[in-house]
Every structure is written in C-alpha cells, then in structure tokens.
Design goal:
The structure holds 2 protein chains of 2 kinds.
Chain A: H1 12-36, H2 38-46, H3 55-77, H4 85-112, H5 119-150, H6 161-190, H7 194-214
Helix pairs in contact in A: 1-2, 1-5, 2-6, 3-5, 4-5, 4-7, 5-6, 6-7
Chain B: H1 23-47, H2 49-57, H3 66-88, H4 97-124, H5 131-143, H6 145-164, H7 168-176, H8 180-216, H9 220-246, H10 248-259
Helix pairs in contact in B: 1-2, 2-8, 3-4, 3-5, 3-6, 4-5, 4-9, 5-8, 6-8, 8-9, 9-10
Classes of the chains: A mainly alpha, B mainly alpha.
Chain lengths: ~230, ~270
C-alpha cells in the first residue's frame, strides 16, 4: 500500500466549521443592525444595500438559541408535561410564531390606511423584530424564572415582591422595547404616520391576545401574556 | 427628487424606494436546492454504498455535507420516529424529556461513534485514510440505511402492538419475573420483533461495512470486522452511559418501574 497516493478526502468538518462561523457572524451583524438602528436597517434591507440574513433564517436561529433554554426553564417552573412531543414543540415555538401573527395584522391595518407595501415586507419586519429584540426580552426573563424555580416556587404560586418587581420590569420593558422596535421598523417600511402605526399595533395585540386565549396558549409564556376569551 | 426632510411626529416616514425583497422565494429556493442534494446523497449511499462512498472519499462526487445529512434526517424523521415509539410504547420515554431526546438521538450517536471506533480498527488493519472519512461515511449512512432500519423496525413494532397488544413492558416484566403463562403470551410477538430488528441491523451493518471498505479501499471482511467491533462497543458504551449518567436516576427508576409491570393483550 505504501507509495500509492490516495486522493484527498473532502474536508467536510472544516466546511462545517467555516459555514457555522460565517452564519454566526452574519446573524450577529444582522442582530446588531436591526436592534440598534431599526430605521436605517429597514432601508438597507428593502433596498438590498448590504448582505443581511434572510428573515426566516434569522428568526430560526434566534429560536434555536432561545427555545431550548426557555423550554428547560419552563419545564423547571411548570412541572406539568404535555401529552405529546408535538404539543411540547408547539408550546415552545408559539411565542415566536406570534410575531408573524402580529406583523400580518399590522399589515392589514396599514393597507387599509393606504400603504402599498407588500405583505412579505411586513412579515420580514415582524421576524426581524421578534428575532432580535423579542428574543432578547425572552432571554432576559429566563434568569428570573430560574431563580423562582430554585426557590421552590412553581406555576400558580405567589411570587415574593422582590422577585415580582424585576419580573414586571423586565417583562413590560421587553414588551415595550419590542413594540417600539416594531413600530419604528414598520413606520419606515410603510412610510406611514405614527397614529396609523399605533392603531395597527393595538389591533394586532388585541387579535394576538384573542388567538392566545382561544388556543389556550397562555402556559407557553413565562411572565404572562395578554389572553382574551381564554380560561 | 429632493432629499426627504426630517419628519415631524405626524408626517409620514420616508419609505424605501424599492418593494420588499422576495426573501420567501430566495429562502425556498435554497431549501429546495439543499433537499435535492440531500436526496441525491441519501439515494447514492443507500442504492450504491460502495461506489458512492469511494467516489465521495475521493472527492469525485458532489454530496451534501455528512453532518447536514444526519441533521436533516434527524429533523425530518426524528419527531415521526418518536411519535411511533410513543404509540407503540416500545421505547416509552415516560415524562422525562431527556429520555425522549435520548431515544431519538441515540441511534445516530451510536452510528457516529461506531464510525470512529471502526476507524481505529481499520487503521490497525492497514488503512491510511483520515478519520473524517469514517465519520463522514457514518453520518451519511445514518441518513439512508439507518433511517430504513428505523422505519421498518418501527412499523413492525406498530403492527405487533395493533395485532397483539405486545409492549416492551411485557418483556421487561418477564425478564424480572419469569412466568410460563406470560411467556406463552409474549413469545410470538417477541420473536418476530427480535428477528426483524436483528435482520434489519444485520443489513445495516453490511451496508455500513461495504461503504467503509470502499471509502478506505480495504477488503470487505476487514471493514465488517471493524464495524462489528465499532457498533458493539459503541452500543454498549452509549447504552451503559445513558442509563448510568446521561439520563440520571429518573430514567433508571423508570426502567426499574417497567420491570414490575407485565402487559399482555387486554
């Protein structure tokens, strides 16, 4: 066998590492661009001025980072386990799917208010906002859930004030940050006035709350969620 | 066209001049391209394991990255496999999430580890190929032949549950407390399950050995020996590690709990 030169085998492991690094870099760049400068980001994205991650891939990456951690804390916090893996997966992913629902409803309202923008643009903005500021607010809530669970507190039990206050601050802060980010991004994309953007967001939150209440998904949201009509 | 003035709170914002990029079509196009390459790779390694593995190891054929093959198979078949397992109650994970994940991931982990261990044996038998070749073949094998083995074994198990009400609990129960009456009830389905699973695993080992032999350019019997050693040690190692450390006392308790139950046809 010696002396016979073997052809070079594909360096697939190096390819995996290189691709993973490139994707991670692109994700971080997109995250920073959308989270820090939403208005400029929307213009850059809509006019394809710079290389940014595809909105669906961006949201999928955020879900892949946040969902397993959120799932672990949720299970720790709420010992009840779902009947099937599908329900478990659906409950884990539900908080992220709602960003699409909110974006679609906002789009409908803004179209009625005279916008000519395409639906895919609004959905992309929903995915970028949810995958950046939304995901960060999910992450920020997790340490509080972990502390509560470590203290032996479970879903349904009363939280002490020293834990309730940071929970409310982080929960509402995250929600406010996401709402502000989405409004700024949608305003630039649709070229709409603030009052129409505000109206669109209020309608979207009501619709989202109705959906969450109807599907009984409140258990999927650690820190609470608006639910209308649910038990 | 003049530059947009700084907008007052009530004024509309300056909108982008172009419509939103078609990111859905772009994303979909990439997914289709990846799936096509995945199908071609899985087809090649399943239908012509020797020829495909030799060509891949020499860089003569364009194939999907082996890790991507394994990940795609896991994503596509994993949940289905898990659902069948839960319904057949053959590898019931109880309520432990770790046990559920273990049941889905274990066969792939065993295949990769088998590739690694088989590589060590092949090195001892004279191969000069780098370890990435064995791991790559192992990962690609998990996309094709391993999936077939898993699907066929699951379907046989599903059929047995539907026809006879047989569950793994019955087997555990018999192992912990041998009883001739229980033996009569479980003998036939247990034999069918063990023989079919054994045959499928034998087929899988032959597939794996043929692909490894071609990739390493060694005789098939050497690859068969390497795969037998690799799969045996990997199965034992992951099996004992999982019950001792990875899944913790909850899983052990569940296994012990199974032993106390005997389930036959209701």
């Amino acid at each position: 066998m010696s002396g016979v030169a073997l052809p070079t085998a594909p360096r697939w492991h190096a390819d995996v590492a290189r691709r993973a690094c490139n994707e991670a870099r692109l994700y971080l760049r997109t995250w920073a661009a959308t989270a820090l400068h939403p208005g400029a980001f929307v213009i850059d994205w809509a006019e394809s001025r710079r290389k940014l991650m595809n909105p669906a891939a961006f949201m999928a990456t955020s879900v892949a980072i946040v969902a397993p951690l959120a799932h672990a804390v949720q299970r720790y916090w709420d010992a009840k386990t779902p009947d099937s893996l599908w329900i478990d997966i659906a409950q884990t992913v539900a908080p992220f799917v709602q960003y699409i629902v909110i974006a679609v409803v906002c789009h409908g309202v803004l179209r009625l208010c005279g916008s000519r923008q395409l639906l895919r643009g609004s959905v992309a903005i929903g995915l970028y906002s949810g995958g950046s500021v939304g995901a960060a607010s999910h992450l920020a809530l997790l340490p509080i859930g972990l502390i509560a669970a470590r203290l032996g507190l479970r879903a349904g039990s009363e939280l002490p004030t020293w834990l309730l206050v940071p929970l409310l601050v982080v929960g509402f802060g995250g929600w406010a940050a996401f709402s502000w980010h989405l409004m700024r991004s949608l305003r630039v994309l649709h070229g709409a006035r603030w009052r129409w953007i505000l109206l669109a967001l209020v309608v979207a939150y009501v619709a989202d709350g109705a959906l969450v209440g109807r599907l009984h998904l409140t258990g999927s949201f650690f820190g609470g969620h608006l639910a209308i009509g649910g038990s | 066209v003049s530059a947009a003035p700084t907008s007052a709170p009530s004024a509309p914002a300056p909108a982008p001049s172009d419509p939103a990029p078609d990111w859905i079509r772009d994303g979909w196009g990439k997914i289709i391209e990846e799936l096509r390459l995945y199908a071609r790779t899985v087809w090649g390694i399943t239908v012509r394991p020797s020829r495909f593995a030799a060509a891949w190891a020499s860089g003569e054929v364009r194939a999907l990255n082996p890790l991507a093959v394994m990940a795609t198979t896991l994503i596509v078949l994993g949940p289905i496999q898990h659902e069948i397992s839960v319904r057949t109650k053959l590898f019931q994970g109880g309520n432990a999430m770790a046990a559920d994940v273990y049941e889905v991931v274990a066969p792939y982990a065993i295949t990769l580890l088998s590739g690694l261990l088989a590589h060590a044996v092949l090195l001892g038998l004279g191969s000069r190929r780098p370890v990435r070749v064995s791991l790559g073949v192992g990962a690609m094998i998990s996309g094709g032949p391993l999936s077939i083995v898993n699907v066929v074994t699951s379907l046989v198990a599903l059929m047995l549950v539907i026809k006879t009400g047989f569950t793994i609990d019955a087997l555990y129960g018999f192992a912990s407390k041998p009883d001739p009456q229980v033996l009569r009830a479980i003998l036939r389905p247990a034999v069918i399950l063990i023989v079919s699973a054994g045959a499928m695993n034998l087929l899988y080992l032959i597939w794996f050995a043929r692909a490894l032999a071609a990739a390493h350019a060694v005789r098939v019997w050497r690859a068969v020996a390497a795969v037998l050693v690799g799969a045996g040690v990997a199965g034992w190692l992951i099996g004992s590690l999982s019950s001792s450390y990875l899944l913790g006392p909850k899983y052990r308790q569940m296994i012990q709990h199974r032993g106390g139950h005997v389930t036959g046809r209701p």
